[in-house]
Structure formats: structure tokens, C-alpha cells
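User: Here's a structure from my thesis project, written as C-alpha cells. My advisor, Dr. K., wants to see whether a designed sequence matches the one we expressed. Can you design one independently, without my sequence as a hint?
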């Protein structure tokens, strides 16, 4: 993994570091509030394609 970071160059290292900081900050932000995980799950559920939203329903009943 370290060789991958070195091969990416300075721009790649900065991008990887920014991604790690962003993901860590987002995770801390979600865990910080009791209601936020439920709202985030609702947001992620709304972003899924319609056919994937309720896997318990047969395909001919999905709308």
C-alpha cells in the first residue's frame, strides 16, 4: 500500500489524505448526534434505485 501512495505522486497523496480526513469527519459527524444516523439512513435509502428499495417485494409488484 505504501508503494501505491508513493507511485501516486504529491497530488495523489494529497487526494488520499483529503479523502481520509473527509470520511473520518463525516463518520464523527454522524455519530455525534442521536438522530443523525436515522436521517442519514433515510437519505441513503432515498438515493437507491427504485427496484432495490424493497427487496422483499416480488419484481412484478415493485413500482
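Assistant: Designed independently from the structure alone:
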Amino acid at each position: 500500500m505504501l508503494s501505491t501512495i508513493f507511485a501516486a505522486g504529491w497530488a495523489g497523496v494529497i487526494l488520499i489524505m483529503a479523502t481520509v480526513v473527509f470520511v473520518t469527519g463525516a463518520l464523527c459527524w454522524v455519530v455525534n448526534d442521536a438522530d443523525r444516523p436515522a436521517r442519514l439512513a433515510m437519505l441513503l435509502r432515498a438515493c437507491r434505485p427504485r427496484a432495490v428499495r424493497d427487496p422483499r417485494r416480488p419484481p412484478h409488484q415493485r413500482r
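When you compare it with your expressed construct, this may help: The first helix runs from residue 2 to 32.
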